[in-house]
Specification:
By secondary structure, the protein is α/β, with parallel strands linked by helices. The protein has 2 domains: about 1-100 and about 300-320, NAD(P)-binding Rossmann-like Domain (Rossmann fold); about 100-290, NAD(P)-binding Rossmann-like Domain (Rossmann fold). The chain is about 35% helix and about 15% strand. α1 (about 10-25) packs across α12 and α4 (about 100-115) packs across α6. The chain binds 2-OXO-4-methylpentanoic acid. 2-OXO-4-methylpentanoic acid binds near residues 76, 78 and 298. It comes from Companilactobacillus nantensis DSM 16982. GO terms for molecular function: D-lactate dehydrogenase (NAD+) activity; NAD binding. This is D-lactate dehydrogenase, LdhA.
């Protein structure tokens, strides 16, 4: 069996190399992203593993079919950049890594929130300038707040535990009820109720598709005054302009944004010597009421190792058994 792994970062290489040695399977490591051009390197291989934020071009899958490659395994969870129709047309199966570390993302939600509640961005900026005054950066305590967890999949459930550990009152919403959360009586009847009753709303749901936001002018008007939004999920869940306006006008306290609707091509890129043309993002970066990070909630050693190895294990299962526990249903 010969596999090829695309878009591999420096920090991922050692996990792939270790796996290759332990499993005695050849894995070619490629740093380029998977494109209609680079897919040509896959000729002669049995399966493709990849991770990238850019959309996967349909032509990639026509070429895979031509080369007799019928499985692609992603090293991440989100499949919103994969054209399912092109996969189906070419009889290509797809796997993802649905659970590489729910705790990594859940912990990051509270990390960002604590930074915001204790005005850490402003404090650190002040101290950097040798301004050691306290006022006006008085903090707020999480144990006094109601945290609304939107989405009770693995990440949402890990977040619930952590927020409860801090003594916050937790409420939750999901279309599908988890029996444990149900037993605890945390569910409210709708997302609207969650938004209305929460001091902090933390999003743990997938993208709803282009133009379908959860946080926008209308929903913000229903939220509590001074509420906080935490987004470690997908940027397109939020209308960033509406969120920014709500914070600037004082309706909301602030927000934690680890994802951004236009992040592709910006996040995980060094733009220090490039003129920055995203004015809205620049305003967010400058505001002390926004904690903005470049999609790093997942970025821990545990998660990166799991992403590298679970995707390879899924590929092996697909090639040996024709399926795997992480295969995505392309008809859903
Ligand atoms: C995903 O797994 O889909 C993520 O959002 C994390 C990604 C940046 C690797």
């Amino acid at each position: 069996m010969k596999l090829i792994d695309y878009g591999v970062r420096e920090d991922e290489k050692k996990y792939i190399q270790e796996w290759s040695k332990d499993n005695d399977v050849e894995v070619k490591i490629v740093t380029d992203l998977l494109t209609p051009e680079t897919v040509k390197m896959a000729q002669g291989y049995d399966g493709i593993i990849a991770y990238q934020q850019l959309p996967y071009d349909e032509k990639i899958f026509d070429t895979m079919n031509e080369y007799g490659i019928h499985v692609i395994s992603l090293r991440n969870v989100g499949v919103d950049n994969v054209p399912f129709e092109a996969l189906k047309r070419n009889e290509i199966r797809l796997t993802n890594v649905p659970s590489y570390s729910p705790e990594a993302i859940a912990e990051y939600s509270v990390t960002g929130l604590m930074m915001l509640l204790r005005n850490m961005k402003n404090m650190v900026r002040k101290v950097d300038q040798h301004d050691f005054r306290w006022v006006p950066d008085i903090g707020h305590e999480l144990n006094q707040l109601t945290v609304g967890v939107a989405g009770t999949g693995r990440i949402g459930r890990a977040a619930i535990k952590i927020y409860q550990g801090f003594g916050a009152k937790v409420i939750a919403f999901d279309k599908f009820h988890n029996p444990e959360i149900e037993k605890e009586g945390l569910y409210v009847d709708s997302l609207d109720t969650l938004l209305k009753e929460s001091d902090v709303v933390t999003l743990h749901i997938p993208s709803l598709g282009k133009g379908h936001t959860v946080i926008n002018k209308d929903s913000i008007s229903e939220m509590k005054d001074n509420a906080i939004v935490v987004n470690t999920a997908r940027g397109d869940l939020i209308n960033t302009k509406d969120l920014y306006d709500a914070v600037v006008t004082g309706k909301l306290y602030g927000a934690v944004m680890d994802v951004y609707e236009n992040e592709v091509g910006i996040f995980n890129t060094d733009l220090t010597d490039t003129e920055f043309s995203d004015e809205l993002l620049e305003k967010v970066i400058q505001s002390p009421r926004f904690i903005l990070t470049p999609h790093i909630a997942f970025y821990t050693t545990k998660a990166v190792k799991n992403m590298a190895t679970i995707s390879l294990n899924s590929m092996v299962a697909e090639l040996k058994n024709g399926t795997s526990e992480n295969e995505i249903n392309l008809d859903k």
